Amino acid sequence: MSLAWGSERVLLTGGSGFLGSALAADLRVAGCTSLCIPRSAEYDLRDRDAVDRLHRLARPTVTIHLAARVGGIGANREHPGEFFHDNVLMGLHTIDAARRFGVRKIVGVGTVCAYPKFTPVPFKEEDLWDGYPEETNAPYGLAKKMLLVQLQAYRQQYGLNGIYLLPVNLYGPGDNFEPSSSHVIPALIRKCVEARKLGSHEIVVWGTGRATREFLFVADAARGIRLAAERYDSAEPVNLGAGFEISIRELVELIAQICGFQGDIRWDESKPDGQPRRRVDTSRADAFGFRASTQFEAGLRQTVEWYEAKVNRLEGAVPATS
Question: Which of 152, 150, 148 is CA-nearest to residue 165?
Answer without folding.
Answer: 148
